[in-house]
Design a protein that fits this description.
Length: about 325
């Protein structure tokens, strides 16, 4: 996948384009990507995701302090590359961009700069200021400028339309199962391994302490999770703790994200790590001392290995 931040090196054959923020790259987004791949094959073209960063709601001040993102920019790039997108255009979102009419955006950016051959849209997506450009308006504009349009219908899970907002709500209340169904794969956290205080290692459970670059990344509720870890090109299983480590309150450094990777005891400091969260096993608890905590960690590992074994078998 080629990543663009402007149009200086823009050389794309018969671009099949979609435009949006794509927070989560969920099953609704993946339906659009699938349609794009099929259309690009028919047109002998290439797929292009035109996305904005920072998130428009943040730039326009339409969020409060509690607003969180499903993906950091690095995670979004990782997911689009994994999905087989040919070109990713990450374009700065500004108040000036938000003030463009749908027709001006289509003409100046998609037609003149991108050379769009086909525009693929989600069922409720709009372009232009005040979301004025619905599918019918865009279809009419496309006819004048000589490109095709397609609309992809909504994806549903358990009778609910899939959306980034709904997934955020499920994650924030701890319903990882429903969130993952809408995402189409386990929720991921990508970061860099930082230095810890070595307490886990002293109990026989060395952990990688994960540092997140974007403070707006949505971190699920505190607790212990069954996870899969992608590290150095390899996949491993493990267990992750999110929380304040109440048993270790006297040496705690605030809320932490740390993962114990099964059958691995190496210094991972500074490495990039991707963790996929399968299931929340239990809430975070305070134990009566280190030995009680250590015993619980053995129980957690046993339960998680049983769970992951069933997942692998299924």
């Amino acid at each position: 996948m080629k990543i663009h931040h402007d149009f200086e090196q823009w050389m794309v054959k018969n671009p099949v384009i979609t435009v949006g923020t794509f927070d989560g790259v969920h099953t609704g987004h993946r339906s659009i990507l699938k349609e794009m791949r099929q259309s690009a094959e028919q047109l002998e073209g290439e797929t292009v995701v035109f996305t904005f960063w920072p998130h428009p709601r943040i730039v326009l001040g339409k969020t409060d302090h509690a607003f969180r993102l499903l993906n950091t920019l690095e995670e979004k790039i990782y997911l689009f590359e994994k999905a087989g997108v040919d070109h990713l255009l990450v374009y700065p979102f500004t108040p000036e961009i938000s003030g463009l009419t749908a027709e001006t955006f289509l003409k100046d950016y998609l037609v003149r700069k991108c050379g769009v051959r086909m525009l693929v849209m989600g069922y409720n997506h709009h372009l232009g200021r005040n979301r004025e450009g619905g599918f019918e308006l865009i279809r009419q504009t496309a006819g004048r400028f000589g490109f095709e349009t397609k609309r992809v219908e909504a994806e549903t899970v358990s009778g609910m339309k899939v959306s980034s907002t709904t997934i955020r709500e499920f994650l924030q209340k701890g319903d990882l199962d429903q969130a993952n169904r809408m995402l189409g794969e386990p929720y991921l956290i990508r970061g860099t391994v930082g230095r810890g205080n070595g307490v886990g290692r002293s109990m026989g459970f060395p952990t990688a302490n994960i540092r997140i670059t974007d403070e707006r990344k949505l971190i699920p509720p505190d607790g212990v999770y069954a996870v899969q870890v992608f590290l150095g090109g390899q996949k491993r299983y493990g267990m992750m703790n999110i929380g304040f480590r109440p048993t270790l309150h006297e040496i705690s450094y605030g809320r932490t994200i740390e993962v114990h990777i099964f059958e691995l005891d190496e210094d991972l400091y500074g490495q990039n790590i991707v963790v996929s969260l399968f299931k929340r096993i239990r809430t975070e608890k305070k134990f009566d001392g280190m030995e009680a905590l250590r015993e619980q960690l053995f129980h957690d590992k046993r339960d998680i290995m049983r769970y992951l074994g069933k997942e692998a078998a299924g």
